[in-house]
Each structure stands twice: as structure tokens, then as C-alpha cells.
Amino acid sequence: MLPVEPDTNRHCFAPCQPGTFCKCLGQWIQATLEEAPIMSDEDRLEMEAQKPHPWQLNPWHPMERPIDKKHIGKLMEELGECSSAAARCLIQGIDEAEPVTGKINREWLEDEIADVLANAELNMDHFGLDRERIETRKVRKMEHLRAWHGMLE
């Protein structure tokens, strides 16, 4: 606990009161050392149990392991490339050719979808994602989109 004079802590927008938990500092605030109550182990445990978890104070916990970043980063890259291929199909037509390379848009889209699927599989393996849940969600989404697309026909 931090010893502070009541209402003199200037680290927060609103002063923390003695005996409360300061979310800005992530610590318990007590009165001056002379006024601090002597706490039993039971009281101390109860106070610790009331203390928010670190994730409640800061919800941002970026990935730190290089291999995790590599998996997610590559998936994001491939999703972007797939998006570019889909946009090209929308703008030029799926059976038209890319003006510089001459590659047919359909083939480019197929390649990029394959790359996304490969990276999705690798991410499911690496992060231990629930494949059954993903499959259930995929089937439900396909049913929903088929009905939605059917409204346009």
C-alpha cells in the first residue's frame, strides 16, 4: 500500500481516498504511515482478493513471442492480399486479366484464398483454436449468407 496524505495524491483525475484501490497506480492507498491500521493476515488476504486483476486495469496485452507475431502477421498479410484480389475481381471482372502480368483474376483469387486457408490452418494449430467451434460457426455463417444472397436472385 502507498502511504499518502488523504486527498493529496495528484496522480489521478480524481483523488483516491485512503483504504481504496487506485486504478491509476494499480495499488491500494492508505493514510499516513502513522494512521495506517495494523492488519491481520485475514484482512490482508481479503483486501488482496478485492484487488482488480491487472487486465482490468489495462486491457491491452500485445503479443510478445516472435513466433506468435509471425503467425498472426502472416495471416494478416494473406488476408490483405486476398482482399486485393477480390477487389480486382469486383472492379475488372473475375475472368479478366491483370494488365501488367496477364494473370487471370480468377486464378489470383484462387491462389490468395488458398494462402488464407493455409495460414488459417497454421494459426489454428499454433494457437490451439477450437476447430469444432470454428466449423460450427462456418456452417452457420454459410447458411446465413446463402439465404442473404438468395434474396438478390
The helix/strand class is mainly alpha
How many domains make up the 3D coordinates?
A: 2
In this structure, how is the largest beta sheet organized?
A: 3 strands, mixed
Percent of residues in helical segments?
40-55%
| Total DSSP helices | 5
Supply Rg: 28 Å
Roughly what fraction of the amino acids lie in strands? Answer: 5-15%
Q: Whole-number average pLDDT?
A: 82
* DSSP, total strands: 3
Given the C-alpha coordinates, what overall shape results? elongated
What is the distance, rounded to the nearest whole angstrom, between the alpha carbons of the first and last residues?
67 Å
Q: How do the strands of the widest beta sheet line up side by side?
A: 1-3-2
Secondary-structure element order, as H and E? EEEHHHHH
Low-confidence stretches: 1-11
Structural account:
With 153 residues, the chain is mainly α. It has 2 domains: 2-57, no CATH class; 66-128. It is 55% helix and 5% strand. The chain is built from 5 helices and 3 strands, in the order E-E-E-H-H-H-H-H. It has helices spanning 41-50, 54-57, 66-92, 105-127, 131-150; strands spanning 2-3, 21-22, 27-30. A 3-stranded mixed beta sheet has the order 1-3-2, with no helix packed on it. Strand 2 and strand 3 form a beta hairpin. Helix 3 runs antiparallel to helix 4. It is elongated. The chain starts with a strand and ends with a helix.
